[in-house]
Amino acid sequence: MPRVNVLSADAATEVDAEIRAGRVVVNAVDVATAVGWDLKPEGLCRGDVCVPVRDDAGVRIDDGVDLGAVAGLLGMATLVDEAGRAMAISAPAAARKAALKGRVAPDFSLPDLDGALHTLEQYKDRKRLLIAFASW
Amino acid sequence: MFLDESADDVREWAEGISFPVLLDREHLLADLYAVSNVPTVVWIDADGSIARPNSSEVGNDMFVDFTGVTPDEHMQQVRDWVREGTVPADADYEVEDLTDDEIAGRLAFRLAAHHRRNGDEARAAEWFATAGQLAPMDFTIRRAAMPLQGVDPFGEQFFELFGAWQEAGSPYHGVPRN
Question: Do B153 and A136 touch (CB under 8 A)?
């Protein structure tokens, strides 16, 4: 089966997928690989949280799952590159909105220059400065 | 946190820094915190709340000739916050949310960077162009794309971008600089 590179907020993965009318359709078992949320009978689940999926939500298409519809339910924006067989997916908008409106600092996990992962949470209970910089 | 493609791009900037230096290749932190240019500083309290949101602050005098800004005022504000818990008057500023076009532009940027990594320069160029059209005032797109396309981010294209940005009213997701 043809492959699509899915660039989600958590990871870059490659999954079997067909692109039909601009929609990226994957196997249900690959939803978790693609977006980090598992498609279960209860809905889309990650850890303790499940988001219900109504039958008319357009998530299930024929024998597959519309990744864009899944992302939409989770508040994630998407952009499909059909010719390039890639799809970029943002983090759920909720975390950003909590930062901007609710002034809650979203947690994250990023590598340092040696590849070790750091989260905001691991430095909790003290004041922190988050400094966004660049070589440009 | 560096909005850069690889650790190699960042290493010399990070020399001598004792606090964690992170690589945000996919610009995820820039998305989570609606960062549209660097440097941007966010103050985070011990309880995880944002004490002072996105503001454009410098850490040294490296670019004072261009910006006219020294690090002294911000450093004193940070000291006052750490020692006394006080925050400046602008700390309650509500940062503007990303627009749909800015969000799409950032997705386009990530597609471009992905194709570039895979050696597909033609697709990368197309998507960098699309990203720049969607969010022309977003430096995490326009300026970040420059070194990824062999363009000097401190050269002519940058000055053109900077001029256009000033003409557009210097839009920035964060505390306005007076």
Answer: yes
For B15-148, where are the alpha helices, taking DSSP H only?
28-32, 64-67, 72-84, 100-117, 121-134, 139-142, 145-148
The verdict on B125 touching A (C-beta cutoff 8 Å) is no
Which chain A residues contact residue B106 at CB under 8 A? 90
**Tokens 């699509």 appear where?**
A4
> Which of A14, A78, A103, A119 should one mutate to test binding to chain B, selecting the residue with the greatest count of B CBs within 10 A?
A103
- Nearest partner of B52 among B62, B44, B63, judged by Cα: B44
Angstrom distance (rounded) from CA B21 to CA A134: 11
Residue with tokens 């070790």: A116
pTM of the model: 0.95
What does the pLDDT look like over B16-73, one tens digit per residue?
888 999 999 999 999 999 999 999 999 999 999 999 999 999 877 777 777 777 888 9
Cβ separation of B23 and A7 shorter than 8 Å? no
Pick A99's closest partner by Cβ from B7, B50, B103: B50
Domain residues of chain B, as ranges? 100-167
| DSSP structural state of residue B177 | P
Residue of B nearest to A113 (CA): B7
Over the stretch B107-150, which tens digit does the pLDDT of each residue have? 999 999 999 999 999 999 999 999 999 999 999 999 999 999 99
Distance of alpha carbon B64 from alpha carbon B119, whole angstroms: 38
